[in-house]
Specification:
The protein is of the alpha+beta class. Helix content is 37%, strand content 32%. The chain has a 4-stranded antiparallel β-sheet. A hairpin with a 6-residue loop joins strand 2 and strand 3. Helix 1 packs antiparallel against helix 3. The longest helix has 16 residues. It is globular.
Length: 93
């Protein structure tokens, strides 16, 4: 199993729009093969900073989702709302 940490900094004026789009993205990810679990955390000091923690069965499962058309389409909506590029870090047990 692997854990994928995705950090995003969202433009303050777009937080509500981002949260809705990010929830839809998580719903799609949950349907991808190998997806185990996912959660979204909000930084208590910086509410525009989000951390997504997703668990996948294998690195290949994550890579399949990462390069999927569904994720690419959702990211086209999310990227304009971000102040910086997302940072992705992958860990394994």
């Amino acid at each position: 199993m692997i854990r994928v940490l995705i950090e995003r900094h969202i433009a303050e004026e777009l937080i509500m729009h981002y949260d809705r789009a990010a929830q839809a993205t998580l719903q799609l990810a949950m349907q991808s093969p190998g997806f185990i679990s996912g959660e979204v955390l909000r930084n208590v000091v910086d509410p525009n900073h989000r951390l997504i923690i997703a668990s996948y069965r294998t690195l290949q499962d994550w890579q399949r989702w990462m390069s999927s058309d569904a994720r690419k389409e959702m990211m086209e909506q999310l990227i304009p709302m971000m102040e910086t590029e997302e940072k992705i870090t992958i860990f394994e047990h």
